[in-house]
Design goal:
Shape: elongated
Largest sheet: none
Radius of gyration: 15 Å
Amino acid sequence: MKELNLLHIVLIYLAVINVVTFFMYGIDKWKAKKSKWRIRETALLGLAVLGGSIGAWLGIKVWHHKTQHKKFKYGVPAIIIIQLALIVYFIISKTI
């Protein structure tokens, strides 16, 4: 039962961080169009590293934002791959 609660907490965290990250990319795109204060690239990438990589990737695709920057174009998919590898590792190590 304790593991199930931890799983729920992790899933809720991942859902929230991905939604927040997705909208942060949208807000930054809006601000770029309006020549307003921008969200730092390190903050956008940091959200991806903290678990919001799917939200970052979707934000790039949906908002057409940061599509030409190499650190986003290649960095966000690399973060997704690393995070998926970690998930697979933890699943495998737990079942063995």
